[in-house]
Amino acid sequence: MFIKFPISWASIVNRIEWTGDLDDDCTAKWCGLLLRAEWMDGTRWWWAVSDVVSGQEIDSSNNSGYFDVEFTSGIAARHAAEKAAREYRQRIKPSTF
To answer: Which residues are 38's β-sheet partners?
Structure first.
């Protein structure tokens, strides 16, 4: 008997699962990367993507490319971190998917 699931294998493999308090400080590990999102003060959120092994920061909301962008929710910060992580993986190691 074959059971067809409504989601694809690729969506499971590429899913980013966040842990911790999604309303304050949370992390996700995905494809060798550590993604973080943290509420800083008021409505301001910070996010970052780092290499798990080296600890090297790959991108974050502190970078000059985001100088005029204000991340005002955990959802927005997590989305930006996920986008940066996926773009990095596509540039650096597309064969890992």
So the answer is: 25, 46
Give the whole-angstrom CA distance, residue 77 versus residue 37. Answer: 6
pLDDT, tens digit (0-9, with 9 covering 90-100), for 25-82:
999 999 999 999 999 988 899 999 999 999 999 999 999 788 788 899 999 999 999 9
Whole-number CA gyration radius for the chain: 15
Count of CB atoms situated within 10 Å of the CB of 47: 25
Question: What is the reported pTM?
Answer: 0.81
Long-range contacts of 13-16 (CB under 8 A, 24+ apart): 13/97, 14/86, 14/97, 16/82, 16/85
CA-based angle 6:37:54, to the nearest 5?
95
Q: Would you state the torsion angle of the CA atoms of residues 43, 32, 30, 35, taken in this order, to the nearest 10 degrees? A: 0
